[in-house]
Design brief:
Elements (H helix, E strand, L loop, with lengths): L8 E3 L19 H15 L20 H5 L4 H25 L23 H17 L4 H8 L4 H4 L15 H21 L18 H4 L4 H9 L1 H25 L3 H21 L3 H12 L8 H16 L6 H29 L8 H4 L18 E3 L2 H4 L5 H6 L13 E3 L4 H9 L3 H11 L4 H20 L5 H6 L7 H33 L14 H12 L2 H4 L8 H16 L1 E6 L12 E7 L3 E11 L9 E6 L2 E2 L29 E2 L6 E3 L2 E8 L13 H19 L19 H10 L5 H4 L11 H12 L2 H18 L12 H12 L16 H4 L6 H17 L6 H10 L9 H8 L10 H9 L3
Parallel strand pairs: 6-11
Antiparallel strand pairs: 1-7, 2-3, 4-5, 5-6, 7-11, 8-10, 9-10
Helix pairs in contact: 3-4, 4-25, 7-10, 7-11, 10-11, 12-13, 14-20, 18-19, 22-23, 22-30, 22-36, 25-26, 26-27, 27-33, 30-31
Bound molecules: zinc ion.
Amino acid sequence: MSLLRLGQRTLSIPKALPRPPLLAASSQATFSTRSYLLNSINNTAGSSTTTNNHHSVSKTSKGSLNTITDSAVSPSSRTRWLPRSSTSWRRGRHAAAAAAPPGQEDTVYSSFSSDQTSMPMNHETSRKMDDETLRAMFDNPVATADVSRAFAPPRSEDLAPTGLFLHPRLQSPEYMQTLTSQTLQHGIHLVDRICSVLPPSQFQPIHPESPFASYLDSPRSAYEHAKALRMVPKLLDRLSDVLCLVIDMAELVRNVHPDERWIAESDRAYERLGSFMNGLNTHQGLYQALKLCRDSPHDPPLTTAEKQLIRTFMTDFEKSGIHLPPDSRQRFVELSDEIQLLGRKFLHDVAAAAAPSDGDGDAESTGPGMLAGLTGSSSGSKAMIEIPDADAVLNGMGKPFIEALPKGSRLGGSRLSRFVSPNSWAAQMIIRHAPNERARRIVYEGCNRYSQERVDVLESLLEKRGELAGVLDQESWAASVLSDKMAKTPENVMGFLTSLAKHHLPKARADVGLLAALKRMESSSNRETSGINAWDRDYFSERYMAVIAPGSRVHPIHPFFSAGTVIQGLSRLFTNLYGIRFVPCALRPGEAWDKDVRKVQVVDETEGLIGSIYFDLFSRPGKSPNAAHYTVRCSRRIDDDDLPGDRLPPDWDWRAGMTGVENYEGVQVKGKPGRYQLPLVVLTTDFARPSFEDGPSLLAWQEVETLFHEMGHAIHSMLGRTEYHNVSGTRCATDFVELPSILMESFVSSPAVLPLFARHFVTDTPLPLEHFQSHLALQSSLSALELNSQITMAMLDQMYHSPLARDPKGIDTTAIYHNLISKMGVIPPVQGTAWQTQFGHLVGYGATYYSYTFDRAIAGKVWSTLFANDPLSRDGGEKLRQDVLGWGGGKDPWEMVANVVDNESIASGDAKAMQTVGSWLQ
Ligand SMILES: [Zn+2]
């Protein structure tokens, strides 16, 4: 892992191929608007279904089709929810008040303390109370500050303002620059400190007045030199930690903060530090010092962990062209900067295309609330989709829906037309529910229309990556990226994907055949239909679900999945598997970026506090619809840091940096010497906000899966407590990192796990098993079609990063995409569209998108080996923790997988091992 390993963000999987991001507008559409419109659609189009296995279709917030069935909950039931919930909430408050020890320094309010004996409360009682409070905490619509006061009587320190993540000074966006400058200064000291072990002829301090420059004139004694040399891996790891603490936080803030000023300052911080890091990745001094350390005798010798750390740093330095002549190294840095900028531009365009513009519909007839998220700007800056003769073409969508769309006459179109924003919620509704094929086609083509500007950005990005691979003397970007992944080579990846694709192609064709038969059946005319087109897929998938499983309409399951119930269930699941649980934790004013953020502390039954998770679950205007896991702070050992050796100025304020904001002294980890920094992660999703009017956030099935998935990453971060930052938690190979999270998707659909979390939000009754099972049966239909999409996307990613990107004539991403889906897909490509400009994962997962499919194969095997017979097995959980999660990236992933599935033959990770993994998915 190089110092360059920025932004520990793990995006969730996009669930479909040739279509726009779904319900991108959810953050703008209020629940009542949507339910009103959904009801209007439901009543007129009659096409309502519950969430189906077609994940992309079911990426919903509260305004999902499930919300239609939600109206089955009578108004009286709704009002009953509030007293029940607030009762339990008050009960939580009462108990918490009794439990809160006076004057306790940290922000733990209930049972937990690292010194449990000092607590005035019975452990079991407090555990139960936390369990109950968790549910209330996520289901109550009250602002976080109020929730926190419910958990404990407010103490003066709870009410005292603080900064983001309890940083006392990070209270204003302007401080980001102070923090960045301080971090850069510290970084420079660390670089000079590391490089000072080199002979004077090789040591060039960054500043001539560096405190380490004295070694140029008077070298250390032999003893001091040996000691300093031994410190090199540790110092390099600490350098990485110092920089990542700010840059990863900036990455989070610029993605989630509702305030533009914070976003702008975080962007600046990210760019300043990112550029510094890019320079360090080709820093000769650091590389030579590390090599000197590796090649020198040490007494006592280097530990296994130190050797592994040195190996990962060396690999990354060498991938950064450290061995190249200076002009090539300079080119490497330039290209890295350009790639970073192009990547950001590409992602910005993806997000902009998905974000709704300001409303501008017939406000006078529908009221302003009706329009949120539905319409686009009239300025024409974003190309709106014009639907001619809207009343006829959108027939079946309901009059209120149509009337909420801006009129053509107002936006320069024809008198009878209406406009819709590309990728808006309304656009999605049309693609999914418009009975008229023409309507679906117009909107599909409008959402995916070819944009020369966006195609150019993507193609420049791919070509720059190809050029950078050339600078490194690699055949392609993929070859360069894959060398330290499980798959090792592009040939291995394509071999894996091709055999999988061939194996599943007949099943995917059969799925499309089912949809085509339905289309013929429902066609009003007798003439031959055109087969399933890209704009038909979602519509007939919805119809198919409704037709084959009418029972699913009778038994909606989402009332059993309130956000609080699911989080509570996750905590219970982790208690069963690992002996850890979530403890609700109050937020101090200023600690989080939005009032809807919630925080839990993660507590191990023997080790005590092991980390914190901030949840930013609910929609708000402008928030990304993508679910994500962010690492803000990694675990690492800190008691042997030797901070005085950094020679920072005497007045240096240690608490002004990001290190040591919380748990400055670190905590002990069972079975390990020393004290450790606690990991801190953030999960973001785009669920509907709970409100007093509508009750808690009820999750569609796919949202439940998403929450489990993201929690898999969070737990990896919590349990992967390595001595070094650079290999902790999710800092592991990209094609390994999804394993823990995909495994969580097996837990979520296990009937044994279900009782831990599925309970009705009004009646508190458990979800009847037969309803769940018929739901799962529905889920598994059309799954080959979905897998085909995933495999095709992974192949596309490989082809875009192959030597094709180094063709002097330039890469033609549209031709490659259309050829690929003609050959390996099951639904023909649409001329004039360029779906690839919406494939945002190309930026963060360039050449490693196959990881999702690959890790799905491994996760299936881990599940059948450890948990299929007993999904709540503590033995299974302990084995997973011991063999996989606890290592983070500190061990070869093939060895970890071989151990956990008891199959030594794959430990070497060769081409044959790849085939074995492929066979697990067949
Ligand atoms: Zn993931």
